[in-house]
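Re: beginner question about structure tokens

> Can someone show what the tokenized structure looks like for a real chain? I only ever see the sequence side.

Sure, here's an example I had lying around. Input first:
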Amino acid sequence: MKVAVIGCTHAGTFAAQETLTNHPDWDVTVYESHDNLSFLSCGIALWVGGHVAHPEKMFYATPDTLAQLGAHMKMQHTVLETNLADKTLKVKNLVTGDESVEQFDKIIVTTGSSPVIPPIEGIDNPRVKLCKNWNHANELKKSAADVKSVVVIGSGYIGAELAEAYATIGKEVTLVDALPHALGKNFDPNISEIVEQDYRDHGVTLALNEKVVSFNGTDQVTVKTDKGAYTADIAVLCVGFKPNTGLFKGQVEMLGNGAIITDEYMQTSVKDVYAAGDSSTVFYNPTQKPDYIPLATNAVRQGLLIGRNIETPTEKYMGTQATSAVELFGRTYSGTGLTVEGAKVRGIEVATTTLEQDYRPDFMPSTTSVLMNLMWSPETRQVLGASFTSQYDIAQAANVVSMAIQTKMTIDQLAMVDMFFQPNYDQPVNYVNAIAMQAVAESK
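And the corresponding structure tokens:
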């Protein structure tokens, strides 16, 4: 069996590994336009902030590790054209310039995503940087020692972490976002307002609810918005990602944004063509519909499933809750499933419960509060989302609620789930139980 893997970051790496593990006699060829693979881009801000001791460990696989499994590694090769119906690829060697046409029995599309680069005046200014791949990471890290001021555009997870990293190493930071709140797509306002105050307390200028309209400057860059202007040594664009699927347009079913739609076995609408990761949709359990949520965790699971289903469809995709967490200025933020705004955008009616309580008993030498939001269906009482923040590490609470959403648990069931009590870690009623109990009380 002859298999092509197009693109090799998270999904491609795991798809190739799993395919060869299950079918060591298959002929698998990997095409990757870069000279590296499996880069953990979530570590860029940590590296800039001085928290990564060995940057080479930001890769969890190498071309050699896949080659040892039997893959034919075509690094620095780009796919110019595809005919998915005929399973043919036109490929260019970026080093030699040679081109060839190859035919396969099966094709795995793991082309990932590209940074969103809006058509803004001056966007090609050399002082406007991106934050996505290894080359971007190197550029940001090398310049970090010299720049004194930075404008970060976009306050999703990547922008939020990068702004914090620059602030903690003493840079003058401005954080710009068109939304009214930082992390506005990840958390509801009562939690976003906490991180916003932390930014202000650490000297970060917030330019929220402001849309960037132009960039200009030579020695520095001035970021002009619809409400003001901010000048710095560099600006870093972190406004999101889009599926890198232009090669396949018109050949497979896609969402409007270009994300390739797959079934529960990672099969596209074209037989023997599979897709995973940032180039494809996910099945979003809180809405029970396909969605586009580019996360490394989704990419890894989907890549593994391709390798397990590529011969015979056997293991179904369980879907995702888009569970995630971030630490900013010593405070943890974690969430899973829907927020109030996320539900509104998707046309889902939710009830919301908010609770704040200390994570462990007051007789302990110290404790601190946990602020929690729980989203649930007023019709079915099913848990649909949750978010948490505390100076205590409550990251794993999101994983607990993620399992509740995935198993379609109700607020009544979550309230009574068996969780231990130990004064070092929690109250007699664990805070996850407590927020669910509060929701039950409010539902009556």
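Each token stands for a local structural state, so reading them left to right follows the chain. The mean pLDDT is 97.
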